Structure formats: C-alpha cells, structure tokens
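Quick one, probably user error.
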C-alpha cells in the first residue's frame, strides 16, 4: 500500500507520537563485553520516572480506533501530514500534525502488523516490500537521525531509541528479504545477524544496532530489564513489535503491557506443571533481571497472569531456556 492510502487509514495520537517532535546467540544483538562492568539498579515499572504519565493502552482497541477515523484533510502544509481525529479521542493540538515520514511509518506499522497465535505480532514483510514501503521506513529513520535525542526528556529519549532500533531492523530485513531468519543477514563472515553493521549516524556518531541496544538503552538509562520489551529483532522468540510508535508520554504503561504480553505467552514463559521454560533473553541478559533464577522469577511474577501466578505459587521453577529465531512473519 502506498503512503497516501496508508495515511488515510491511520489514526490515534498514541500511534503517531514521536518523542520530542517539537523540537542473541545472546541477541537482539550481542551484548558488549563491557556490559558486565556497568552497575544497574533494577526498578519495577512503578518505580520508574514517577512523572511519566501512565496511560492504559490496549492492542485490541487499535483496530477499533482506526475504523472511527475521520477523513484526512486534503490540503496539509508542505512536508506535514494533517492527521484525522477519532470521534472518541480528544487529541492535543500539537498531535494533530505530524511530519510526513512519521505519519507514514506509524500508519505502516498499523497496517502491516497482525496478531498471530499465542499473541505473537506478525509483520507482513512480503506485502511491505511489494508495495515499496522500504522507502517509507528509510524516510522515517532518516527523519529520526536528523533529530537530537540529547535534547529530549529521558522517557522521550528511550522512546526515540526504541523506535530507531525497530525501524532499522525492519529496514535491514526488507533490504535482504526474502530471508528465513535475521541471523542469515551477517555482519561479517563469522558474525550471524546484522547487529554489528553500521546502521545510522546520530549527532555525528555512527551506530550499530548493538550500540543502540547495549551501549545506549541498557547502559545509560534506568531499569534495563524493561528495555528488552521495547526492542524487536524480527524474530518469533522476541517480545512483540509494537503496533504503534513508542512515546515518552505513555512509556511506563506501554512497557508494562509489553512485558505482560510476552511473559504470559509461551514465548516468554512456557508452563509444564512445575517446570518453566523461559525465553533465553532471561538467561543471556540475566544481570538485567537481578543476576539469578530467583530474581528472574521475581521479575516475572510482577507481570504474571492467573495461570502463571498459580504455577509460581505452587513452586514452579526454571527448567530451561529457549528462543525461536524464525522471522516474525
């Protein structure tokens, strides 16, 4: 679908929100060896940035909102897309207009992501490539690269980097599609995955995907455990690719929901009586979750639904770890 048709189907301020616009193999990439030198303070979502507004979100409501979208204005200002307004949503004045690359990319996410078995978000790579949407993703990453995240608030910075990481990942997969796994796209002869390739330049510094996730998001900000629910490495085993843009305004609520969605899926925690098989993410990055199996289970419990809570209360323990590298399509 071309940009014009995508934008006509798009809405919701949460979807288009980009931070501060006013202005494995241990992966989603290999963690740098220096990670162990960093002292982390692991906080619960309730402890992170009390000033962040926790706005409840629901994936189930996303499609509903789109159906209530009013027609898009036909004569927007140059370079800016005039966004429609839902009948049931009061949009802030600054959210009624977004730069064209932002609006197109947000609409693309909404259009190309569908829900599969076990709550897995699937991305339509074939459709996006056939409709030339690699150009829209590239325009979005170019737009983000032109911004200065250092001038943003901490929540907006995290949202910025998550959006950049996820869009760059979609971009590199589409540049090499068809491919059965992102690990088939190599950074070098002996480096599966694209995580060590130069991917983008921000504020004059060239960055890889590993730089963004491990050198910036996990290293420079509080609560690295929650970073893992924000970045998506185009694999079935990964936490879901969000069907909208990350926003500093709803960061706390959206991350908590992403954690619940993953932990209560078999990709996050599979229950077999008193045996739990966890995602390898909890093993590869165990320092982010407290450094032990017991601290990992404490983290899991915070987001566990009734079935998992019942298993934990009955004494279920970690029996192993698993990860599926097949492409999330």
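Nope, works fine. Designed sequence:
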């Amino acid at each position: 679908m071309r940009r014009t048709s995508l934008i006509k189907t798009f809405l919701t301020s949460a979807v288009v929100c980009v931070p501060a616009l006013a202005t494995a193999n241990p992966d989603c990439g290999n963690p740098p060896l220096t990670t162990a030198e960093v002292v982390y303070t692991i906080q619960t979502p309730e402890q992170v940035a009390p000033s962040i507004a926790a706005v409840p979100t629901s994936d189930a409501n996303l499609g509903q909102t789109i159906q209530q979208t009013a027609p898009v204005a036909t004569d927007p200002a140059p370079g800016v897309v005039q966004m429609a307004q839902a009948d049931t949503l009061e949009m802030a004045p600054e959210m009624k207009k977004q730069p064209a690359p932002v609006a197109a990319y947000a609409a693309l996410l909404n259009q190309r992501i569908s829900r599969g078995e076990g709550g897995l978000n699937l991305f339509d790579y074939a459709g996006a490539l056939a409709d030339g949407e690699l150009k829209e993703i590239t325009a979005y990453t170019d737009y983000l690269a032109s911004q200065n995240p250092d001038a943003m608030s901490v929540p907006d910075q995290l949202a910025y980097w998550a959006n950049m990481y996820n869009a760059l990942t979609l971009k590199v997969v589409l540049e090499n599609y068809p491919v059965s796994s992102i690990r088939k796209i190599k950074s070098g002869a002996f480096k599966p995955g694209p995580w060590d390739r130069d991917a983008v330049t921000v504020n004059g510094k060239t960055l890889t995907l590993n730089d963004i996730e491990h050198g910036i998001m996990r290293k420079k900000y509080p609560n690295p455990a929650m970073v893992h629910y924000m970045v998506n490495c185009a694999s079935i085993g990964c936490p879901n690719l969000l069907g909208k843009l990350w926003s500093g305004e709803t960061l706390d609520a959206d991350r908590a929901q992403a954690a619940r969605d993953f932990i209560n899926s078999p990709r996050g925690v599979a229950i077999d009586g008193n045996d739990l098989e966890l995602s390898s993410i909890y093993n590869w990055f165990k320092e982010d979750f407290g450094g032990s199996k017991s601290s990992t289970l404490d983290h899991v419990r915070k987001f566990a639904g009734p079935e998992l809570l019942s298993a934990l209360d009955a004494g279920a323990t970690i029996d192993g770890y698993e990860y599926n590298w097949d492409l999330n399509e």
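The chain has twelve helices and nine strands.
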